[in-house]
Amino acid sequence: MTHHNLLMKTNSGDQKDERCPICLDRFKNKKQLKCKDEFCEDCLRQAQDANGPICPVCRVVFGKIIGDQPDGRMSHQTLRTSLPGYSDCGTIVINYVIPSGIQTAKHPNPGQLYSGIHRTAYLPDNKEGNEVLQLLKRAFQQRLIFTVGTSRTTGLDNQVTWNDIPHKTSTSGGPDRFGYPDPEYLSRVKEELKAKGIE
Predict the structure, then answer these.
(1) Beta carbons within 8 Å of 194's beta carbon, 6+ residues apart
(2) Which sequence spans correspond to the domains of the chain?
(3) Would you tell me how many other CB atoms lie within 10 Å of the CB of residue 140?
(4) E strand or H helix at 162, and its extent?
(5) What is the dihedral of CA 8, 11, 12, 15, to 10 degrees?
(6) Which of 184, 198, 101, 100 minimizes the C-alpha distance to 145?
(7) Considering all CA atoms of the chain, what is the largest pairwise distance in Å, rounded to the nearest integer?
């Protein structure tokens, strides 16, 4: 790298540091996030209103994301039977119940009815499975597990549907049937939860 290129790189780097990556103007009330990215306070507030507390540059979550999941209940129990791929432990059975109700302003059709659901999911009853269970409980409390929309299986609108956090809804059949064995599942679901700020 020549001295000229080095100088150019430094100058452009300095210039970038003085400008907000959202409005591209000089900072007004500079705010720095934990990830060290910096923004104008107003620009960051607008980005947060649009996309939640997620850094617009590096996508790190800097606050608590609250979803639009309707009210419902999450419970679990354990069984002695084991899941394929986890013969050394029992099974955690998670039950989700979301009753039917009326959509709010956060949903696609405010004021219209939505159809509720009862879903069951399975985890191995080992250390990692129990860790995932605790993370899923937090995700449920933050209203991130379900949403209201169009069902991928039936094509019907105004349904309570899964919201991008993968669940195993079958004890067998492998990944193609949303079941076990699937050795990558627990790490995959933890990555999805981490992307929503739950870790």
Answers:
(1) none
(2) 3-51, 73-195
(3) 19
(4) strand 159-162
(5) -170
(6) 198
(7) 69
For 73-195, CATH number?
3.30.390.130
Over the stretch 127-141, which tens digit does the pLDDT of each residue have? 999 999 999 999 999
Q: Report the candidate in 26, 65, 20, 19 with the shortest Cα–Cα distance to residue 43.
A: 20
Burial of 80 (0-12, 13-18, 19+ CB in 10 A): exposed
CATH of 3-51, one of 3.30.40.10, 3.30.70.420, 3.40.50.300, 3.30.70.260: 3.30.40.10
pLDDT tens profile 83-119? 999 999 999 999 999 999 999 998 989 999 999 999 9
* CA dist 39 → 11, 54, 124, 172 (Å): 19, 13, 43, 48
- What ranges in the chain are assigned the alpha helix state H? 3-17, 41-51, 127-141, 185-195
- Hey, which bits of 44-137 come out as E strands? 73-79, 91-98, 101-102, 113-114, 117-124
